[in-house]
Amino acid sequence: MWTFLDRNLLLLMLLYSCFSSAVCSSIYSSSCQLQGQFHLNGMHKAGDVVLGGLFQIHFFSTYPDLSFTSEPQQPTCHGFDVLGFKQAQTMAFAIDEINRNSNLLPNLTMGYSVYDNCLQLGIGFRAALSLASGQEEQVMLYDTCVGTPPVLGIVGDDASSHSIAISTVLGLYRVPMVSYFSTCSCLSDRLRFPSFFRTIPSDAFQVRAMIQILKHFGWTWAGLLISNDDYGLHAARSFQSDLGPSGGSCLAYTEILSWGDNPDELRRIVNVMKKSTARVVIAFVHESHMIDLMEEVVRQNVTGLQWMASEAWTSAAVLQTPHLMPYLGGTLGIAIRRGEIPGLREFLLQIHPDPNHNNSYGNNVWLPDGRIKVQTVGEVKRSAFKGEELTLDEDKIFWNFESKEPPRSVCSESCPPGTRTARKKGEPECCFDCIPCSEGKISNKTDSLECTSCSEDFWSSPQRDHCVPKKIDFLSYHEPLGICLTATSLLGTFVCAIVLGIFIYHRKTPIVRANNSELSFQLLLSLKLCFLCSLLFIGHPRLWTCQLRHAAFGISFVLCVSCILVKTMVVLAVFKASKPGGEASLKWFGAVQQRGTVLVLTSVQAAICTAWLVSSSPVPHKNTKYHNDKIVYECVIGSTIGFAVLLGYIGLLAILSFLLAFLARNLPDNFNEAKLITFSMLIFCAVWVAFVPAYISSPGKYADAVEVFAILASSFGLLVALFGPKCYIILLRPERNTKKAIMGRGTTKS
User: Fold this and answer.
1) What CATH code would you report for 480-743?
2) What is the pTM of this model?
């Protein structure tokens, strides 16, 4: 950006030129008179063809005070710049070489007119206008022009801001301008700068090269320092454009350095650098700005930074000193490719240049003996197919850190698998938090943007980095609950077998014969089936087990309760037959009628089960509503009505048996089986009344466990209540196993 003084001087010059033109045109003169002279530092050589040159021979200037009452004095240049002087001498050497070669410009000699811009736009603009229009005192409009001819083109300027301003004017007259150091990408606009050319890549090329270096070393968080002029601002714009939303890197801060910044502002900028987590600092600044910046960096002792230099200060010898190496050592920079010009060295030695100066083009290395070496560590080549291609020789790179390895410069560490990135509000996109994936979702790569859901039969691992098959949950033979229920079922079956064996062995004894031995045997067999059917509720549900379990359960219990009901009816019939005139009632309860009744009652339940299985059969089902991470295998009953009718029919028979037994509870026999049936039916009904709400409220395998428990509890209740007292008498009180004892005769009540 131009300084206030530069703008004022340029405005005065333009007003002066316009005034001169106005005077000339108003008097219709045939010649133009030069109104004033610019006192410029320069060197000249006459020739048939003259080239102009603008170089930085001095690097600062002083201006006299402006009083606005007299003509201002011209500025004075100070501070000899060796590099700019060498560049000017190189132009002179090249022109001398052209003149010595008769094959290049036969019958013509080339001259030059080189001016010092003193690193000031105002001075450089004066020099450019002088080169383009000449400095003859008087120019005739109609006669042949005589004197020093205007230049055919200008080599320079070095600063982008200078080239932009000068090319804007020279482009109007199509005066060619070829810069050797202006890199602003804006100068590539042919419409704005039709006569500007350069021999150096634009800063857009440098930016792309730097971004490749950032990506190569995984530096996603970097600071950017720019000069407050066209050079720095366009570089920053190129960075923002090329990084973009998916560039993989972002900038921690963008600070503007301008010539003449006050110490407080410079101190603030260095404080930002010091506090930032970015370990990489990219500096698109001029050499003079970098010197000021490094003075403050040294003062605050800001170390541990990896600097990346633009071409403006990569090869600056003033920054390659032992004093600055603890801070700038290992700097990576984009430098201009160096070319060897035969004879130039000898030519420069005649004018006593600094022999220790060296351009680079790469990485600053601090050698053990204290010397500083600038060496090339890679190159960027542009190809038509691949664009800019970066190659690095990392073995040559000097890392100015204790680890001697590239630093890490990231805003946020990479999110591991099992997490996703979540951008921090109000911060660049490379600043993010790592959010663990929720249950059922995974991410299997680093820095995932989203977590993906597992398929239906899979669930996320504890680390959330891969999907694993869901656990299968059912009432298994291998878990403690399943083992206990299985053991209880087998125990009940075994006890039934023992009781059946006892009754068969003592089948001729009065107590067995008096209690309808055939129905007793049928009842024991049905109880064995009840115990065994509970095993169908344990294990992996399959279609046949789902269909068979409730049918077997329903038929077994109906068979059992039917036997009890018939036994109760027989007891009542026997009691009625013992009364006068009641003998006829026994003919309806003979053995055939008993078997037929049991068969008919059981057939009704079989018909209910058949209708249920045909209309809406129970099937195995994978249920995931109870647990997200488990698959609960269960048997869906299919038809709730069918299951309710099955249970209701059993309940109906049980209630009927209970009522009949309750009516016969006070029969006068010493051993009244009706009391045992009443007690057993009371237990049976209580168990199944409690079963219904427990079954409905129990999820998954626990519903099966509740049903198995109800089956086993009711079966044991019937077994113990009906056969426990009889086995007690048969085994432990054989003296009571007589007809007299059973009929209540020969015993005295105490």
Assistant:
1) 1.20.1070.10
2) 0.62
